[in-house]
Amino acid sequence: MFITNRAKALAPYVAGEQPKDQKYIKLNTNENPYPPSPKIVEAMAKETRNLRLYPDADSTALCEAIAQVENIGADCVFCGNGSDEILSFVFYAFFGDDLPLLFPDITYSFYPVYANFYGVPYKKIPLNSAFEIVAEDYMRPASGVIFPNPNAPTSIFLNQEEICELLQYHAEKVVAVDEAYIAFGGESMVPFIHQYPNLLITRTLSKSHALAGMRVGYAIGQPHLIEGLRRVKDSFNSYPVDRIAAAAARAAILDREYYHKINGKIIGTRDRFIENIKKIGFTVAPSKTNFVFAGHESIPASELYLRLKERGILVRYFNKHRIDNHLRISIGTDSDMNYVLKTLGELVP
After folding, report:
1. Dihedral sign of CA atoms 163, 165, 169, 171 in order
2. Helix (H, G, I), strand (E, B) or coil at 160
3. In whole angstroms, what is the distance from residue 340 CA to residue 334 CA?
4. For site-directed labelling of 205, which of 32, 80, 218, 313 has its Cα 20 to 30 A away?
5. Where are the domains of the chain?
6. Alpha-carbon span 146 to 153, nearest angstrom
7. Residue 129 CB coordination number (10 Å)
8. What is the Cα–Cα distance from 300 to 288, expressed in whole angstroms?
9. How is 183-210 classified by DSSP, letter by letter?
């Protein structure tokens, strides 16, 4: 009785399940199967002596580390509590005119949640029959465009040339490219930041840097876009990234060699897994992520999801139009994926 009608009307984002009834091979939330850089332990320990003090409101040291790695100015970087918080700021700061925001019909399901939360009108643009984003379909009047690249949950990458065409068409509007999975084989749009004043890139350290439990993300764009995010942040939460998280994230960002190694292992495991599940009749989208999007004609994905769960394997099933016969399977260790492959071989006709 105490909840407002406005709150009652919300349709919250539904995260991947986190059951505790038994031990699972957990391949439903796209977490990195390897531990984060060992260098973060010392960085976190050093920062504990400063916990009596508020954190740096702008996460300056972390922004500078990201700028160093990406070869851009620190004034082109904004940090927040995971990319979800930053995406929330993006929706509030840049979208919401009378024209609709455009994003794919099959994509990260937080987009319509944020649009509804902030009262942003939007239009879902259908992927084609191969689950690909077609840039030409977005060349229509809009308040802006947002999409993950590679897309989730389909895992398919949109090339830089087509994104540049979108940026040129929507020169007066923000085009936000959500690069949560860019470390697993795609080509980033960061080299185009100085060319396009309407390009904003968001990233998370949850996947590529194995810090899902720490909640750190960042955005890259020209300074006027970063200022827009800061304006929203300072009207909502002036100190978003705590000292421990910022110290750990900075150490992780700078340990490029370690993450190049573990993410390379994930890419190799993914490619071998795709090759092998195709041999037992699965259709698989071309993946540039740390997960695969796959289906089988002989057994419904809903049934396969439940039977895998019975065998101690958690994957993600989306009971949604067009993708209700597909599973999203995160890539684990070689041992994990060998067991998944063996189990799938036993379950499919």
Report:
1. positive
2. helix
3. 10
4. 313
5. 15-35+257-347, 39-254
6. 15
7. 7
8. 25
9. GGT---SGGGTTT-TTEEEEEESSSTTS
- What b/e readout covers 81-92, taking b as 16+ CB neighbours within 10 angstroms? bbbbbbbbbbbb
Buried b (16+ CB within 10 A) or exposed e, 148-163: bbbbbbbbbbbeeeeb
Q: What's the burial of 124, exposed, middle or buried (CB within 10 Å: 0-12/13-18/19+)?
A: middle
Of 209, 37, 232, 12, residue with least CA distance to 114: 12
Across the chain, mean pLDDT equals 95
Closest CA to 67 of 192, 203, 253, 243: 253
Pairing verdict, β 313-314 and 291-296: unpaired
Q: Does domain 15-35+257-347 have CATH number 2.60.410.10?
A: no
- End-to-end CA gap in the chain: 51
* CA pair distance 294, 300, nearest whole angstrom: 11
Tell me the pLDDT tens digit for each residue of 38-80: 999 999 999 999 999 999 999 999 999 999 999 999 999 999 9
For CA atoms 51, 57, 59, 61, give the dihedral sign: negative
Statement: the pTM of the whole predicted model exceeds 0.90: yes
Q: Which residue has the tokens 């063996």?
A: 342
Cα dihedral 44/45/46/51 (nearest 10): 80
pLDDT at 155: 97
Q: Tell me the C-alpha distance between 325 and 323, whole Å.
A: 5
CATH of 39-254, one of 1.10.10.10, 3.40.50.720, 3.40.640.10, 3.40.1160.10: 3.40.640.10
Please give the pLDDT value at position 54: 95
Q: Distance (Å, rounded) from C-alpha 119 to C-alpha 35?
A: 39
Q: Please, what sign has the CA dihedral across residues 307, 313, 319, 321?
A: negative
Flag whether pLDDT at 5 surpasses 80: no
